[in-house]
Fold these 2 entries.
Entry 1:
Amino acid sequence: MTDGPDPAGPVPDGSSSDYSLSEDRLADDGPDDTVGGVTADGPEPEEMYPGGPEVEVELRPQRRLRIWQLAPIVGLAAVGSLMFAFPLAFDFGDSGAVIAMLGLLICSCAAGWGMMAARRVGYTWPGLPPRGSGRRPDWRVVLGYVLLVAVAVVLAVWRVARLR
């Protein structure tokens, strides 16, 4: 029928078969007639799961902060806050302001570390969109957080400055 090589290859007796499809040969894309339009190629769903219906299980672990992640953050925050509070509460002489500022710095580092760890497991600040959602944060919420941090820093610096 067509010129070219035979896709079936040579026949065992050495001659080449022709392209015409016979009744007993399959077409290139499978059988032409199937009962009900589907071929039976495996067990029924009831045979595969004799114990009942399938149960979907989440393979990824839950995204939450573990104790080994929280312990150093909490410890650093506690040390920093104590270093900030004790010079303010008791008279430490001239070095009190330096120790208090160092404590404030350590406490701020612990807060930043905690925020980054929380962000990594998917937690967000109230009012801000989740990470990767594509939504922009509301400018009023961001402004409120910036003002809150600015007031805390101004009060801390003012209190430490009063030690001198």
Note: The chain has four helices and no strands.
Entry 2:
Amino acid sequence: MSDPSGSAEGAVVRHLVGILVGLAGTAVALAVAGAGMGIAYEGMMRMDLDRVPSGSGLLLAGGLLLGGVALAARLSPAAPLTAAVLLAAASAWTLVDPQAPFVLGRGLGYLLSLQYGMLLAGLLAVAAFVVPRRRAEPGPPPSWAHGPSSGPVVH
């Protein structure tokens, strides 16, 4: 969704899409990573180590989804910033009510209560400003790049 004219309406739409990508991507990533955290954590606690790799795989998938949200900064910095605010707010809420995220599942409760959301929020906030958003359109080639001159060569 790029707006070649660079109009204000195009920028607003681009940022709104970025916010939606940040919200939806973070929700899906948290669901996947929360499931993975629950499987891995409980597998470790019960010494059922055969379950830990599947939990780790889901954690990796959730991380890759959040990486996709970070890469959406090329569309709009609002995508990773929205994700960062959502993760920071959810993790901060656990400081007020530590049992609140466990309503959504044990894995998500572990993920947020252990403040991993704050860690991920910091990474996403940085990604909003580090990832290059757009490349400039190429201009005309330099004058020396047009090939050899048309005059005679004198040695």
Note: Residues 8-45 form the longest helix (38 residues).
